[in-house]
Amino acid sequence: MTASPGVPARVPGEGWQNARHFGADPSGAADSTAAIQAALSAGAGGTYAYLPKGRYVVSAPLTISGPGLVGDGNGSQLLWDQAVVGTLVRASSAAAHQYVSIRDVRLSQTNPTPGGTAIDASAFQFSRIERVLIDKADSGAHPSIGVDYNNGITHYNVLRDCVINVDGRNAIGVRYSGGANSNVLENCRILPSTTDASQIGIYVNAYAIELDHPDIESVAGTAIVLDAGATSNRPTQLIAPYLENPNGTDIAVINGGCPPAMGSGRFTLTKRALTARASSATVAQDPDLGFRMLPSRVYGFRFMLIYDGPGSAAADLTMSLIAQGMPALVQWTVTGLALASLTAPQGQMTARIAQAAGTAVSVPTAGVGARTAAVAFAEGLVGPGAGGTFALQWAQRVANPTPTTLYAGSTLTVEQVS
């Protein structure tokens, strides 16, 4: 390529190969493919290709053999036609390319028909794709695949802080397949179609994939699909997902794949101070042991209750569970203190959600005083439904002037399971 007069080959202090030095046209009037490829090739010895702000037309795939491609944010825009360029950015060969970086660029598809792949990262290892916007330009349509990790050598890559738009039949925002294990997605917004039910936000057919705060909203299809390669010995780790798809599906597990391990969906509430209730057999919500459920979620729960009360069996601790706004059943079991004179208080109960207080279960008390306090465990599943409060309710089985007490240190542990 002929160097552009007055444009430095390298950005001062950075060691980047400036694509404009090789003749890239930021106005979009001329084809910049050869110039950008020359910058990428010049950087193979250890420097990045740098794309200053502008609109650059590309008519052939850009291949990376060196450190990668960096720009100045969304203003550094590559324009490509999926009918001419099936894949915009990819490795220069099928061999493993390590420590590649693609960041601060916008990749915009110009053809009015959706299609093509924006980034094929299938030969990358230890790569970082960051702050990349994948979308359409002018009268174009979004590509059909945003970022593709689809090879048995595709390991230890990070996709972070990106916005990825896709469209077209069977479009996929991000794909992990073909043995592409041990990869991480962080804080990315994936936007498939709101009307095409065939589209998928994130497709996982690989193991040891971490999805940290994926944001996939209002899709008609499926936000996250876990296929057979998402195995149970190294399951997909799903952390703080933001999924709101009332007309589609949040998470689909197919072909024997393993449901995700909900990394940050687990929390424990601890009772801060004791609560004592006397002369009442009417269950009431505990002030500490309850939380507000999200819509369409299923939770596993476990109460650990430290309690005491009158020695009389009539004043046993009676508990029930409230689950407001839920169309399904709460399934739970209680294991607690068993006295020789009483029926062992354990078994499975089903609470009708339409009943505010659920179904009551009693466990014996051990006698007045913290030193003789007993422990009971109640655990089960609740959901899915429209959301609302889930909480422990409790009272004395028969009113007694000596209080029944639920002590500080009692806990409710919850884990979102789907």
Account of the 3D structure:
This protein is an all-beta fold and about 425 residues long. The chain has two domains: about 60-260; about 265-415, Jelly Rolls (Sandwich), CATH 2.60.120. The chain is about 0% helix and about 45% strand. The strands form six sheets. It has a ten-stranded parallel β-sheet. Strands 3-6-10-14-17-20-23-26 form an eight-stranded parallel β-sheet, with no helix packed on it. It has an eight-stranded parallel β-sheet with strand order 4-7-11-15-18-21-24-27. It starts with 16 loop residues before the first strand and ends with a strand. Mean pLDDT is about 85; it is low at about 340-355.
Structure keywords:
mainly beta, 418 residues, 43% strand, single chain, 10-stranded parallel beta sheet, Jelly Rolls
